[in-house]
TrEMBL record, chains A, B:
Key words of the record: DNA-binding, Transcription, Transcription regulation
Name this polypeptide is given: TetR/AcrR family transcriptional regulator
Region named Disordered: 1-28, 210-233
Residues covered by the HTH tetR-type domain: 31-91
Pfam families the UniProt entry points to: TetR_C_11, TetR_N
Low complexity compositional bias, start-end: 1-16, 220-233
Source species, domain of life: Bacteria
Presence of the UniProt keyword Protein biosynthesis in the record: no
Keyword DNA-binding assigned: yes
Highest classification ranks of the organism: Bacteria, Bacillati, Actinomycetota, Actinomycetes, Streptosporangiales
DNA-binding region per Swiss-Prot/TrEMBL record: 54-73
DNA sequence: CACGATAGTGAACAGACTTGTCCCTTATTT
DNA sequence: AAATAAGGGACAAGTCTGTTCACTATCGTG
């Protein structure tokens, strides 16, 4: 049994979140341990996939034993939801930007979103995005914590811009509000990261033209009926 | 596993393309068998995830033995790439629409894309989208077979529309061309399916306003330098 | 300050499942 | 009929899962 783990001299390794089994001087409990487990969970999720998660792998990564995990959660799914929901490791309520201009707000909001995606919690989202059908509860949590808040804020930003005359009133819709975040997400999936230049490009090449006040060209909206002309073959 | 694996009564009498081990009168070989394996692979991929794929599971789904698979491919990864590449089960070159109008072209192209996503081969894409980092070769194939062709055609559609005066010339860019497909993909991931109404909404609420000829408002493009105004906190 | 309650650590374990390979039988092709 | 390859089962080695246990650091209380 167990060479004692109470090495009295190891003050150096004070507190690194993702330590792969570093012998610790202090034994964590309660909240501190829980948060370390959340971190390890998100890191592992970011590295691999939801299906491969297991208490078996997470425990050593968090520098603890499986028992501590089984005492808290019944399944990896529960653990993931908890990790996502916890404000300190997962997602809290994002704040609305207020730079005074539509372009400033968009770049601030989308830039922050892109930044979050580069953190462990953001990279942990990636494997979850394709799990809608198999793990509705997990996906619903992603939706509730990430997708919907962004959409809500974006809609408010658009409304404010429309009120200032900076944006066309008819672009204040959920569909238009979804464009920015979705383009960021797509860029993230395709390239692995979203740089500042990408954010600017999305804002300047897509969102600004899309929301620009319309000098009433007769074509901008849906042509009433018009057969949809789909000629797929 | 005492229960015989060739249960003569498939549950719910599934049709034969994805038949879960229906006893066959005829023994397939060569191309026919290969294609059946591709189908089973894509079906299973659509149902679960890339990580969970294994010859062990695919073989019975294709109604054959593991030997037939190991004789053809060394790893599930190779098999997936082959299944995606095969024109009869995977993706060939998509055709460019030519309806005469920008809106018609967009709805035709994106509608067809949405349709493909509802097929097995399309649903099989979903788990692959998050595998860029772990399986670059598979993702590269997705890119080559699905993402890039769509982008290429869309760019051509935009160019043609610009030539006709239907679209602003400055919107003929890869970034703008990426918007449609990416919104379709995002809708697909978030809702599980993309209906005709979604396609129309994307075209009419986003793409048409975005590409509308610009009567030269002084603001549509990037403001030269202008600090990016990001005030993320 | 010391004691007892609580909870973390680390390991072991049995059972289930997975993996790649091998081999024998049988259908199909030449 | 001979050659080829499919069908399908069996195998050993390895992996993963959830439990349980002995041990000990930490905390709260008296």
């Amino acid at each position: 049994m167990a060479t004692t783990s109470h090495a009295p001299d190891a003050p150096t390794a004070a507190a690194q979140p993702p330590g792969p089994a570093t012998p610790r001087a202090t034994r964590r409990r309660g909240e501190a341990l829980t948060r370390a487990i959340y971190q390890a969970t998100l890191n592992e999720l970011a590295r691999t996939s939801f299906e491969e998660l297991s208490f078996d792998k997470i425990a050593p990564l968090a520098g603890t034993g499986k028992s501590a995990l089984y005492r808290r959660w019944a399944t990896p799914e529960e653990l993931v939801i908890a990790a996502l929901t916890d404000p300190s490791t997962g997602f809290g309520d994002p704040v609305a930007p207020d730079t005074g201009s539509l372009r400033g707000d968009l770049i601030a909001l989308l830039g922050r979103f892109a930044g979050v995606l580069d953190e462990p919690r953001g990279r942990a989202l990636r494997p979850l995005l394709t799990q809608r059908a198999r793990h509705p509860e997990v996906f619903e949590e992603v939706r509730r914590l990430v997708i919907l808040p962004n959409q809500r804020i974006l809609l408010a930003v658009l409304q404010a811009a429309a009120d200032r005359g900076e944006a066309a009133p008819q672009c204040v819709t959920p569909r238009v509000a979804s464009v920015g975040p979705r383009l960021i997400m797509a860029e993230f999936l395709e390239k692995g990261t979203v740089g500042r230049a990408d954010v600017q490009s999305i804002v300047d090449e897509v969102l600004m033209p899309l929301t620009a006040p319309r000098p009433d060209t007769g074509r901008s909206d849906a042509p009433a009926d018009a057969g949809d002309g789909a000629r797929a073959t």
